[in-house]
Please model this.
Amino acid sequence: MAGSASDDVVTTSSETTEERDAKKEEVDENGADSSSGSDMVQEIQMKHPLQHTWCLWYMENNRTKKWEDCLVEITSVENVEDFWSLYNHIKLLSEMKSGTDFNLFKKGIKPMWEDQFNKRGGKWMLTLDKYQRHTEFDRLWLDMLLCLIGEVFDYPDEICGAVASIRGKGDKICVWTRSSQNKAANLAIGHNIRDRLKLPPNMKIQYVLHDTSATSKHGNVNAVYEV
Model:
C-alpha cells in the first residue's frame, strides 16, 4: 500500500502497484523467479483476464491538503482472481470511517472531475439512509464492482468508474460516465444500475453533472435524470 492509507484500507498486508511492477521487471530481467517457467505459464493460463484494467483509489478528506493530494492509488487488477484477492484484503465499507472514499476506475482515468475523461460527464448517484450502512452498503458496493469488471452495462465505453463515499449524513454510491450529453447511454446505464443492484421502487437514483457538483457549495444539485 502507498503512503499512510494502508492501515485504513487493508485487513492484512498487500502489495502496491509499484511493488508488483518491480517484481514483474525483476522477472523480465532475470528470465526467471522462484517458480519454474512452466509453472508461471500455467498460472497465467488459469487466470481469467478482464476486458479493462481497473485501479482502486482511496481518498480520506483532509482540509489541510489539496483534494488531489488526498487521493491514493492502492493497486490495479487485470484479472478475476486478482480482483477477489484485492477485495478480500480490503476493509468493508461499513468498517471505514466517515469522510473516506473508495474509487474503482478504468486505468488511465483519475477519480477527479478535472480528468479529461470526466470533465464533460456526470454521475448516477444512489444515496443511502444511515441505517443502511450496516444492512445494504457492502452488498450494493460489491454488486457494483462486479458490474464494472464484468462489463455488464449498456454503452460500456461511457463508463469511467464508480465511487463509494462514507458520510455521516448518508453514504453514497456513484457511477461516473464520460458524456453527460449522451442521453440514451446515460438513461440505459441508469436502468442497468436499478436492475443489477435490485433496487426497490422507492429507492431512486439521480444523474447529476460534474460541473454543477463542482460549483455547488452545499452539495445540493439539480438532477438531470431520475430513474
User: Anything to note?
Assistant: Residues 3-226 form a domain with the RNA Cap, Translation Initiation Factor Eif4e fold (CATH 3.30.760.10). Helices lie at 6-9, 17-30, 37-46, 80-87, 137-149, 183-197, 210-215. The beta strands are 49-60, 71-79, 100-106, 122-127, 159-166, 172-177, 206-209, 225-226. The first helix runs from residue 6 to 9.
